[in-house]
Design a protein that fits this description.
heterodimer; A: 348 residues; alpha/beta; nine-stranded mixed beta sheet; two-stranded parallel sheet; 42% helix; globular; B: 428 residues; mainly alpha; MetI-like fold; 3 domains; three-stranded antiparallel beta sheet
């Protein structure tokens, strides 16, 4: 029958084209990795495609860990060429790369990103918190009368009488997000460490990892999904609610939001870059050196990525909210990455 | 006495009925009221959804443009230096002519930022295409940068104190001067449909997503339609009714209820993992969506085949047609409207599906539209996902606009399904 013939031939054509496509050479550069580095990789990819007319690199936001899995999957066209990370590669990831034959990797520190706690400009108070106050407000378990117990605080004034008498309410990222991991590590663990209970008890890092990593589930901390724009909207609707997100979102919405200072320091380019603002982290990207010269334009793209136009103090990464490296650091990164110097092995 | 009782019984009976009648009427109107309330609630929610989308999204359907005459200075741009060249210097010089009092290099740079970053490439492409333009004056009509677009659309308020605003008073003054000179216009934003994605909201468009969705749906249709119909015809017309066909039927119904993200994981492991197909390709997306659409098509086709009256089959067989002839010449053509409706609704569902596409990497950032089903691309719903997550202000309205475009496509496809049903429906 014509009908059956038609459908079988359609299937046959599809099967043939599928195999043909799998065999075709990859023309575009593929970038994966952290959602924090994603906007910067996007910027570099677009600029590169516009400047050179080469096929635009494909940038995918997979998260730092997911990006490492793909990046360390092996050598060859089916594996990505670059990955962005909002933390340095871990020893186990380095090990994974080695076992899969990805032995030549260049590591580049591209800049810094701050996590901001923001509040609506309509808020009557100027907020300045210490990390331990942040911890006491948002952690699942805190010291109460010398005991490690469920968090009883509902008002900021209960934590410190000098703070305003305002209900604790903070919107933050869900556990799947890299921003959450960073916040827990940089703010919650550090805040926990500063507590007199922990210092006097002589607890070590493992104890802190185990006991200070959980955010409270009883209302004051609300997981608002991955969509940071939604958090921004909620904050403008409720003057007393705080939001936790990347500095770039605060930067873009500085007309309606203001920052909560931490230990008296407000997040801005300077304080994030010199780490005086405590919740800041380095951003990295990793280059698979075996792909240079194999994937077309790879070397040129890497050069664009670390160029002064991109990474420099007036570069277009900074325009998007990243905090730039110092000139010396930048020069070192540029020479290392352009020449394809391999990173030092990571060990435990 | 008997008369009395009869009469009184009859009377009380009528009374009883008339008393009960009011109560029954009341109950009926309450039920009707609940029904109307339920429908109005559904409409209200739909209305609110559309209202919020339109009220934030309509501003993205226009885009502020700047029209300016640019003198392509042969001192700055030479034929030999094409296509590279200092086209941004050219734009900067042009604007400085408008504002002669601007002299510090920092202010000149700030002035240049009124233009979208794409302006220099638009100018470059025109000059590269026609190098004779060097030494002449070109009239350029280009988008302005997102901040100024937001200002023109009143999304950045002039009342906000300067230190909190993304634009300084100086920048606003420049923009107003250009506006007074009649160089600012706010035409319909065709770029929203004709541009590929960009990190600059004023340049970002849906072309890549539309083309990607088209290829994915085409692949999905070419696979799920013949396979789905074939399976349905076999099960309905040829398969023996026994335990095995029962099990198959139950499984197909279950398959239709499997969450789509599961199909995404399957595709990631099988198509990309085993078969080594490329990531982010609409072809792979189409295969994944086909897995999801197939049960819907099978179920719809079987229902359509079942609704063809047995008399048709019997008449054809009575005239000596073979079973195959009965199916393909009589039953399937009569069932076609139902089959097509089911298919289109299945495809419309596939068009709006996000989760499986995220897993196979169709949420990548790509600044060019795909030229075939194997080029990397995004799809409409994943593009919305990417834009919703972008920090730039301009993407807030563009996200809503993209959702409206997606809804328009869904409504269009459902409209086709309704049309086909009306046009070809037969009553027996």
């Amino acid at each position: 029958m014509s009908f059956t013939k038609l459908s079988t031939s359609a299937l046959a054509i599809l099967a043939v084209t599928a195999t043909a496509a799998a065999a075709q050479n990859r023309q575009e550069i593929r970038v994966v990795g952290s959602s924090t580095v994603f906007p910067y990789s996007q910027a570099a990819a677009e600029q590169f495609a516009n400047n050179t007319g080469a096929p635009s690199p494909i940038v995918e936001s997979t998260g730092t860990g997911g990006g490492m899995q793909l990046f360390c999957g092996g050598i060859g066209e089916s594996h990505p060429d670059l990955t962005g990370a909002s933390r340095a590669m871990t020893a186990s990831e380095y090990e994974l790369c080695q076992t899969n034959g990805v032995t030549d990797i260049s590591e580049a520190l591209i800049g810094y990103d701050g996590l901001s706690i923001a509040i609506s400009r309509d808020s009557e108070n100027d907020w300045d918190l210490t990390l331990s106050e942040v911890y006491l407000a948002l952690a699942a378990q805190v010291p109460v009368d010398g005991e490690w117990a469920d968090n009883p605080y509902t008002m900021w004034s209960e934590i410190n009488p000098d703070l305003p008498e305002v209900e604790i309410l903070a919107y933050g990222p869900p556990p799947t997000s890299g921003t959450r991991d960073a916040f827990v590590e940089l703010a919650m663990h550090a805040g926990c460490e500063e507590l007199p209970f922990v210092q006097e008890g002589g607890f070590d890092g493992d104890w802190i990892d185990e006991n200070c990593s959980r955010m409270r589930q009883d209302g004051p901390f609300v997981e608002a999904g991955e969509n940071d724009n939604l958090i921004v909207q909620r904050l403008t609707a409720d003057a007393n609610a705080m939001g936790i997100f990347g500095y770039s979102f605060l930067f873009e919405n500085s007309d309606t939001l203001k920052a909560v200072s931490i230990n008296g320091v407000e997040p801005n380019a300077e304080t994030i870059g010199d780490f005086s603002y405590p919740i800041s982290r380095p951003l990295y990207f990793y280059v698979k050196n075996a792909h240079r010269g194999v994937i077309p334009n790879m070397q040129e793209f890497v050069e664009e990525f670390v160029s002064d136009d991109a990474l420099g103090a007036d570069g277009y990464f900074v325009e998007r909210g990243m905090v730039a490296l110092s000139d010396d650091q930048l020069a070192e990164v540029q020479s290392n990455v352009i020449e394809g110097v391999n990173m030092d092995p990571k060990t435990e | 006495m008997t008369d009395m009782t009869n009469r009184s019984a009859g009377k009380s009976n009528a009374e009883h009925i008339s008393a009960g009648l009011a109560r029954r009427h009341r109950k009926e109107s309450i039920l009707k009221g609940f029904g109307i309330a339920a429908i109005s609630f559904a409409f209200l929610i739909l209305g609110i959804l559309l209202m919020t989308l339109v009220s934030t999204g309509y501003k993205a359907f226009t885009q502020t443009h700047l029209t300016i005459d640019v003198y392509v200075d042969p001192d700055v741009i030479t034929r030999d230096a094409l296509p590279r060249g200092a086209f941004d210097d050219l734009l900067e010089n042009t604007l400085v002519e408008e504002f002669p009092d601007v002299d510090s290099s920092q202010d000149r740079r700030a002035l240049l930022r009124i233009f979208s970053n794409g302006a220099q490439f638009t100018l470059r492409d025109r000059v590269v295409e026609n190098p004779d333009l060097i030494g002449q004056t070109v009239s350029l009509n280009v988008p302005v940068a997102d901040n100024f677009d937001q200002l023109n659309k009143d999304l950045i308020s002039r009342d906000t104190p300067e230190e909190f605003r993304r634009l300084s008073d100086q920048e606003i003054a420049w923009f107003d001067a250009l506006d007074e000179a009649g160089m600012i216009s706010n035409p319909i934003n065709f770029g929203l449909l004709t541009n590929a994605d960009s990190r600059f909201p004023e340049l970002a468009g849906l072309k890549g997503a539309l083309v990607g969705s088209f290829w994915a749906l085409l692949t999905c249709f070419l696979i799920s339609f013949p396979v789905g119909i074939g399976a349905a015809i076999y099960l309905e017309e040829f398969a023996p009714k026994n335990k095995i066909s029962d099990i198959i039927e139950v499984n197909i119904n279950n398959l239709a209820a499997v969450p789509s993200v599961v199909f995404g994981l399957l595709a990631l492991a099988v198509f990309i993992g085993w078969f080594g197909m490329p990531r982010s390709a609409p072809f792979v997306g189409g295969l994944t969506l086909a897995l999801m659409t197939m049960p819907t098509i099978i179920i719809a086709t079987r229902a359509a085949l079942k609704s063809v009256p047995p008399s048709i089959r019997e008449a054809a067989m009575g005239l000596g047609a073979s079973r195959q002839q009965v199916v393909f010449q009589h039953v399937v053509p009569l069932a076609m409207p139902g089959i097509l409706t089911g298919t289109i609704i299945g495809l419309a569902q596939a068009l709006g599906e996000t989760a499986p596409l995220l897993l196979i990497g169709m949420n990548a950032f790509i600044t060019s539209a795909p030229s075939g089903p194997f080029d990397s691309a995004t799809a409409l719903p994943t593009q919305i996902f990417i834009w919703a997550d972008s920090p730039e202000r301009g993407f807030v309205s563009r996200t809503s606009a993209a959702i409206l475009v997606l809804l328009a496509f869904l409504a269009f496809m459902n409209g086709i399904a309704i049309y086909l049903r009306q046009k070809f429906q037969r009553k027996w």
